[in-house]
Amino acid sequence: MPDGDKQSLSDFRAEIAAWIDENAPADVRGRDFSEDDICWGGKRWTFKSEGQKAWLEACAARGLTAPMWPEPYGGAGLSRAQDKVFKEEMDRLRVKKPLDSFGLWMLGPALLAFGTEEQKKHLLPQITRGEIRWCQGYSEPGAGSDLASVQTFAEDKGDHWVVNGQKIW
User: Are residues 52 and 33 in contact, defined by beta-carbon separation less than 8 angstroms?
Assistant: First the structure.
């Protein structure tokens, strides 16, 4: 729901609470969750349960894996206040996040700010659906996270890049 809509936050709270209650399977609610319960996404991701998969799919279809991202890029277009209400209702109903990934909290915001329109339309919806997984490769043997000491480099081969170097972790 975009900022410009006239719906009050109390109406939004009632609507989103009802939606969560209707769509969150039993195995993603009502208890404390550990890191083992997190859905990181990606092509090779193995869901812990059918409920976890269904919850991700329901939230992604409504844009709720990235609530404040614009709708054309897979988000729900929520305002900051609506996002806060959504998170409060998730906490109140003890429902776990459908997806937690580097793509959502690190790469996605960078693409939103600096990516081309083509990159945004191609990559961001895949991130919100948990279809692709991203990582950050700073650490190297002998360099750690000291970016000035990183030795990995990429060569432009015209139609592709060749990356050479080592990473750890």
Answer: no
Chain centroid, CA 126 distance in Å: 9
Same domain flag for 121 and 80: yes
Per-10-residue mean pLDDT, the chain, length 169:
65 97 93 80 89 96 98 97 97 92 93 97 97 85 85 93 87
Q: Is the pTM of this model over 0.85?
A: no
User: Do 76 and 158 belong to one domain?
Assistant: no
**Dihedral sign (CA 141, 145, 151, 152):** positive
Q: List the domain range (segments joined by +) for residue 148.
A: 137-169
Nearest by Cα to 55 from 124, 129, 106, 125: 129
> Do 18 and 66 share a structural domain?
yes
